[in-house]
Every structure is written in structure tokens, then in C-alpha cells.
TrEMBL record:
Family indicated by similarity: Belongs to the pirin family.
Entry superkingdom: Bacteria
All residue ranges annotated as the Pirin N-terminal domain in the record: 38-139
Entry protein name: Pirin
Species assigned in the record: Microcella alkaliphila
MF terms in GO: metal ion binding
Cofactor annotation: Fe cation
Residue span, Pirin C-terminal domain: 194-292
Pfam families: Pirin (PF02678), Pirin_C (PF05726)
Keyword Metal-binding: yes
Record's keyword terms, sorted: Iron, Metal-binding
Length: 331
């Protein structure tokens, strides 16, 4: 998914020290004009830029897209220095990218695209889709790997019972489910999983204490460690140090959450529009290459390649801010 904001904020991201628990509220962001799909963006924000290497989390739906002219229509757009993680609860999205990958995104299946040195892709909901509901996440690549050649992976995580919960690990692994680790390639220690609990159920979940974690409630209501209340569309942040997490579903409805985590990235990054870099000049160069190679000359093969099969123009980059983008110093 692209960040389609006309004036994207400069995002100066690092691993700030934080309290043991933070409750983060998402902000609503329209994607693409007056009939746009609205997403709830819970990462990044002022209170927290990163959870491990997870640097972006958009949560959307359930949306009835029969009431609009179109559902999700995101034209070809670029990425650098990151991985995109597409995860659906309902609906179907068609993915095309400049590696030649053409893959449907369906509920319970992972589409992971590693942008590395540069990629472009499009995302369009299929004609048969009447409801869209899911999440789009980005992972920042560490400096040593961020110029790797782009590639694409599709996996189908196996649902596993853990107590009363059903768990799908789509990135990394959980300590109790090491035999069901994700096959997807990551570049830092990470975790991404969907957990479904029936109403009133309690799960004591073993954690890697070197990880920081985030709990995004998609539906229902969660109580974490018997004291922290997290409602639908909220993200609960847990600092490193805990070796288990107690998750209790509210008594009135089933609970569905996304659990993300990882070791703190330990590197300041600059994230602007769909690019991740390390300084202002690098972001400027990424934007210039995109505008020159793709927008001004759609047939020119360059850093971002070409998306075959998409009927329409690529997405121009917005104007850069008038001030220099600066990475934040590490505490």
C-alpha cells in the first residue's frame, strides 16, 4: 500500500525510551481522494515510531466497497529500504510488482515484498470483493541489508491451536510455536501473528524478552496482563523485558488481534512518503529517480523497474518539504 497523503509528514524515526506500556490511538487517513478508503494509522506517530523494525501499520475495514465506484485502487508507486507485509481478514487484492510478481492477497495468506534498493507495485481490490478488511505493515530494513535486490514472497501460514486460541504466525516465530515459524525471509528478529480467542478466553503466551511488542485489536476487547485495556483499533505497546503476556478476551465478543514484535532496530531512519533512507539527500535522490525514470519516462528501466499488467499511470511523488529532513539522534 502507498502512503497517498498529499503532504506526507517528515517521519524521523528512532527507538525512543518509553514506559513499560503505552496505549496508542490511530489517526484516520483517507487514501486517494473524495471517494477514498479510510485507514487507521497506528504507526508511526509522535508517541512511538517503531516496534522492533515494524515502522508502519495501517488498519482498515471492514468496508462495504459495493457502495463506491471502486474499492482499493493504488497505482504503481515506489518503495526503498523496507519490506511490505499485506494481511487480510476479508476480501481479495491483486498485487503486481516490478520483479514480475503477480499474486492475489487473500485472508490468512501472507504477501511479503522486499523493496531493498528499489521496487514499484500496484494494489487493486478484485471485482468479486464486496468487503475489504485487513492491515498493511512495513518493516524497516537494517542498514547492512537495505540495498539488497528486491524480491517477493507468498506464504500460507498454518493455523495452530494454542490453548483456546487459534494462532497464525505470518512473520518470524513465537517461542511456544517454534515448529510453526514463518517461512518468509526477514533481516532482523521479528514476529507477526494473528491471534483469535473466543469470548472470555484467557491465553498466557510466552514471549521473547529481548523483543518489544505491539498488540493491535482488530475486533473485540483485550485485557493485557490483567491491567491494560485495549479496545478495537487501538495498539498496545509493551517494552522489552517480559517473557510472557496474558491476553484476556472480553466476555461479550470474540477477540482478534495482530501481535507484532522484534528487537529494537537501534538505527535512526528517515521515512518520507514511500521511501526509507538515512538522510535528506538520499530521500531527495530516491524521489528524483522515481520522477525521472518512471513519471517523466514510463519506458525507462531504472532503479524501480516497471509494473506489467496495470492499466494506468504510476503515482507521482508529492513535493518535498521546504526544510531538510533530519534523522533523530539515538538516545
Amino acid at each position: 500500500m502507498s502512503n497517498l497523503e498529499v503532504e506526507p509528514a517528515e517521519l524521523l524515526c528512532d527507538d525512543d525510551s518509553a514506559p513499560r506500556f503505552q496505549l496508542l490511538e490511530g489517526r484516520e487517513v483517507p487514501l486517494g481522494g473524495p471517494r477514498a478508503m479510510t485507514v487507521r494509522r497506528t504507526l508511526p506517530q509522535r508517541e512511538r515510531s517503531l516496534i522492533g523494525a515494524w515502522c508502519f501499520l495501517d488498519h482498515y475495514g471492514p468496508d462495504d466497497i459495493t457502495e463506491r465506484d471502486a474499492g482499493m485502487v493504488v497505482p504503481p508507486h515506489p518503495h526503498t529500504g523496507l519490506q511490505t507485509v499485506s494481511w487480510l481478514f476479508e476480501g481479495e487484492i491483486e498485487h503486481r510488482d516490478s520483479t514480475g510478481a503477480h499474486q492475489m492477497v487473500r485472508p490468512g495468506e501472507l504477501n511479503l515484498m522486499t523493496a531493498g534498493s528499489g521496487i514499484q507495485h500496484s494494489e487493486v481490490s478484485t471485482p468479486a470483493t464486496t468487503r475489504l478488511h485487513g492491515a498493511q505493515l512495513w518493516v524497516a530494513l537494517p542498514d547492512r541489508d537495505r540495498h539488497t535486490a528486491p524480491f517477493f514472497e507468498h506464504t500460507e501460514p498454518v493455523p495452530v491451536r494454542l490453548g483456546d486460541a487459534t494462532v497464525r504466525v505470518f512473520v518470524g516465530e513465537l517461542p511456544e510455536l517454534a515448529d510453526h515459524a514463518s517461512e518468509a525471509r526477514t533481516f532482523t528478529p521479528l514476529l507477526g501473528a494473528q491471534l483469535d480467542l473466543p469470548a472470555g478466553a484467557v491465553l498466557d503466551l510466552a514471549l521473547d524478552p529481548t523483543f518489544e511488542h505491539g498488540v493491535l485489536v482488530d475486533s473485540g476487547h483485550a485485557t493485557l496482563d490483567d491491567e491494560h485495556e485495549v479496545s478495537a483499533a487501538q495498539l498496545g505497546y509493551l517494552a522489552p523485558g517480559a517473557d510472557y503476556l496474558r491476553i484476556e478476551a472480553g466476555a461479550d465478543a470474540p477477540l482478534r488481534i495482530l501481535l507484532i514484535g522484534g528487537t529494537p532496530l537501534g538505527e535512526p531512519i528517515v521515512m518520507w512518503w514511500n521511501f526509507i533512507g538515512r538522510d535528506h539527500d538520499e530521500i531527495v535522490a530516491f524521489r528524483e529517480r522515481w520522477q525521472t525514470d518512471v513519471i517523466d519516462d514510463a519506458d525507462r528501466a531504472g532503479r524501480f523497474g516497471h509494473v506489467d499488467g496495470y492499466d494506468g499511470p504510476a503515482l507521482p511523488a508529492p513535493a518535498l518539504p521546504s526544510i531538510r529532513l533530519r534523522p533523530r539522534e539515538q538516545p
